[in-house]
Amino acid sequence: MLKKKYLNVYKLLAGRVATNIADSLFYMALLWYFKETGHSPLMVALIFSIEAGIDIISFGFGPLIDRLSVKKLLKYSTLIQIMISVIIVCVLNLKQNNVIIDIFLLLLFSISTTLSSIIYPTEYKLLPLFVEKNDLLHFNGLFQISYKILDLVLDGITTFVIATTSISVTIILSAVIFAIALFTYAKVQINILAKDVLKSEEYFTGSYLKDLQIGWITLKNESNIIKLMLPLCVVNFFFGIFDIGLPYFAQSYIHDSAIGYGGLLMASSLGSILGAFVIQHFKLGKKNMAAFISFCFLGAGVFRLLVPLTVNASVVFALVNSAISSLWITMMNINFEALVQTSFSSAVLGRIDTINDSLLSLMIPLGTFVGSWIIEKFGSISTQYVYGMALLISSIYYFNVTRYRKNSK
Q1: By the 8 A CB rule, do 289 and 377 touch?
Q2: 123-162 residue pLDDT tens
Q3: What is the Rg, in whole angstroms, of the alpha carbon atoms belonging to the chain?
Q4: Is 40 exposed, middle or buried (0-12, 13-18, 19+ CB in 10 A)?
């Protein structure tokens, strides 16, 4: 039975799950529309670029997330997404294919994606207000399990829905599920104490630019978090190298069809789900959270290097190593999220989270450019070694940082 004191968390989770499903339906339907209606591949590329671009500039949404009523933000953002879905269905039913329609659809997609980029950090900043610090790892893990399982099955389900119905029906279905999310968000209750924390005048000036600056300064002043966060940006750069090399590596060493790439993705997803389950059973204090990151990177690095090292001997063993590496990465990510949530007031957490997302998102596309060059010069397997070594070096860095902090006290 659900604990009554955490009912708000489960309502938030239900809304998050519904939003995630609706987002996937909406995204895949538009992607399929541009792919299948004879448009230039440029339009499909623009969808990917818009999504990545919004992640990079998401730091600009932070002051709005922190200043506005979180409940209204969740409700009105979701309501606008419902309206966008309805408008797009009306546009598609006109059966007019021209540049103006394409631009209009891309604009609506951009707005919907922006709203999702606002909803997710809003939920993130509410979580530490709804649960005790000792339970943050558990609930962050629970949220991650929901995301990972959905990611594992949604693309296939969405493709099936589009194939058996139509693009318009898929978007209508997304609107219905957005409506379910809206209903759930409306049921979330924020008590007076939580409202007082969210409206703490210490973090607000009345000026958007100054409030944005306060977010950067607050993050900068928490030197322990900075020392842990900036190397994550570097790791994301190497993840970009790894990620672009993965399909080529899979085709060359796992299986010469899409099965190889799909197998690696499936193994990683299963490892991530298991990692989200495992981390829920940890009870780490704030000091131990920082040290735990180094162990996660060590485990992730060792098993990531074992993938290319063992793939010629046994594909199954390589897939298992890939899953275990993802398990460690997921535990590290959830642990880091909880560490950030315990290090800052929820009044400024929207700005902190979006700044982190922007910095981390920026590094991945930069890594993909370098990764494409590495593939041409040294082969796809080298991208796997580069990422594994980056994880190991990060482990050494974090170990030294946490040891220095311990010795300096």
Answers
A1: no
A2: 888 888 888 877 888 888 888 777 777 776 776 677 778 8
A3: 22
A4: exposed
